[in-house]
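@channel sequence for tomorrow's demo:
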Amino acid sequence: MPSQSEIKLFSSLKLKKFRQKYGLFVVEGAKTVAELVHSSMKVRHILTSHELPFDAGDISVAHISVKEMERLSSMDNPPGILAVVELPSYGAEISENSRGPVLALDGIRDPGNLGTMIRTADWYGVRDILLSEDCTDVFNPKCLHASMGSFQRVRCHYGTLKNLIPGTGLPVVGCTLHGSNIRETNLPERCVLLIGSESHGISAGLLPLLDLQITIPRFGQAESLNAAVAAAIALDHCVH
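structure tokens (generated this afternoon):
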């Protein structure tokens, strides 16, 4: 049974500053926690308010009250199972054996959007995402929930994109409003695919890095396309 001080610490992990301070984050839901048990991530504790529906192996499991679970949960209807996990550290190097594109995200602030992008990247076999320092936190509870467990399989690297992108040695393709029609452009499967925010697009300082600009043609009157949707469409054209 965790102490009240531990409960307080785990509850504080809803905020980025405490996730960074303690090097921990919280994941909720039986399916995702069960996947974590067999992943490369280090699970410190599993907390549950009911019977655990899977074998946790040698990981510490503690039963807590429903009231304590509600205090720890970020959800309106807590699933009753959560894990306290160590924050991974991937450095700046991308996966050596990756065959698909590397996704680069500039100024993505919405955690739901970012989580959806991570899930989509996982679907298309992307193993690395480069994120500008002003992107939202991957380990925000809303982002984790939207990723549907894909955060375990996609390595997210934060840093200055001006440094991270050239370090890959790959051609850089950027989604802009004035690029070549994506439907008529043959995109390299092994490249950096750069997506900017819906409101500002790709930062002006990153445009000189682009080897190719592409655009998704508009047929209606919408002012902009959701960044996660744009990333999905572009990835689909990259992966052959």
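heads up for whoever presents: Helices lie at 4-12, 16-22, 30-37, 66-72, 111-123, 141-147, 161-164, 227-238.
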